[in-house]
Amino acid sequence: MAREKSSFNLETCARKNILSLQPYRCARDDYKDDGTNILLDANENAYGPGLALQDDGKLANGATNGHATDEKSLEVDLLGLNRYPDPHQVELKQKLCKLRNTNTHTDKILQPENLFVGVGSDEAIDALFRCFCAPGIDKILTCPPTYGMYAVSAQVNDISVTTVTLDNINNFSLRSNVINAALTQDPSIKLVYICSPGNPTGNLVSKAAVQEILEHPTWNGVVVLDEAYIDFAPDGSSLAEWVLEWPNLVVMQTLSKAFGLAGIRLGAAFTSPGIAALLNNLKAPYNISSPTSALANAAMAPENLKVMRNNRAKILQQRNRLLEELPNIPGIGRFLGGSYANFLLVEVLDGPRDNGGKPNNETALNVYKRLAENRGVVVRFRGKEYGCNGCLRITVGTEAEVDRFLAEIKDVLKALIKGHVDMGENRNQERNEIAANDVVA
User: Fold this and answer.
1) CA-atom Rg of the chain in angstroms
2) 205 and 196 in contact (C-beta within 8 Å)?
3) What are phi and psi of 250, to 5 degrees?
4) Phi, psi of 424 (to 5 degrees)
5) pTM confidence score
6) Over the stretch 125-183, which tens digit does the pLDDT of each residue have?
7) Closest by alpha carbon to 335, among 393, 259, 251?
8) How far from the centroid of its chain's Cα atoms is residue 370's Cα?
9) What span, in angstroms and rounded, lies between the C-alpha atoms of 175 and 216?
């Protein structure tokens, strides 16, 4: 039987801002994990989950390094998966609070009512938009170069983005005075997103700069500090507990980086009880699955925190090694930003530095593509970001991965510098640079 003609028209039915969205591109869209590639592009933890595991990767339940313990490190209630999970996650929130109650920035104590937990930090980013920004009316402010998900979420929510670039002349420092001027001029800006440590810059934002924004005399909005990489910074760097001193401060964190649990998608937002209540009121009722909750709770156990910290120490060791050895390779320029994350931002030059080589996007893109396609080493091209001309962002890998990366990039750059690769072969250079840079990671 022939179907009757429908009056449905997708182009006029769907929201215009959604129709204009470009497909979301993430790190695994371009180069897959085929078991042989070295993935140094998504800032994942190369040493694995921060859980006490056996050598075969199975859970060492009731045992750490082969020694029995009184309390099992992880129990997933498989028989209970027919039931909806805990909608409040109070136990998990209490453990996260305990982790961040250092009394470095306040004498007060974080409590579960200061927390929202969601599906990665991305849920908190989106929830803050829906909580504070009226579509088509309000705005947010970001500080490029920065994490691309803020702009993606803004477009989804039909929110305009005002930008105040970081000061690339002064190590990508936050220009709080310029931000405050923008907030004075435009009261429709409701959220200020600040990344610390920055992505892709890897530097910490000064506490004084954040405070200057929080003390704005007239602005009625929220400062959002994204601390996804904070556990790679020195102890005491997190401002999570500082939310107890400021009613309009939100500090986002995740278990995806230092904890090595990107696969469970667990993020947290520390904030005042009032903001936390709003975020919890608008979330889906059961946004944290039972397996995710069990794994996140387990990650807070002492034996598993020890694993996380041991893995972190190895990453910091390899980070220091890259800082020392990478500049010795002809064609490598300066490190930009800071070294407070599990990645580094480095310039690729069009020739040896001693011969006057300059940062060059074409060279960097060639290195990026040849590492990935010919050598099985995937890094991230960031050359189209503000102040990042000719830059690659390199996730710190294991010792063996760093060995291979250093050898492969040395060979690739040697061939490029000697002219063994046609530097002019990219006829669509600008388009290729934009495509490589647009990955949100």
Assistant:
1) 23
2) yes
3) -120, 130
4) -100, 15
5) 0.92
6) 999 999 999 999 999 999 999 999 999 999 999 999 999 999 999 999 999 999 999 99
7) 393
8) 25
9) 14
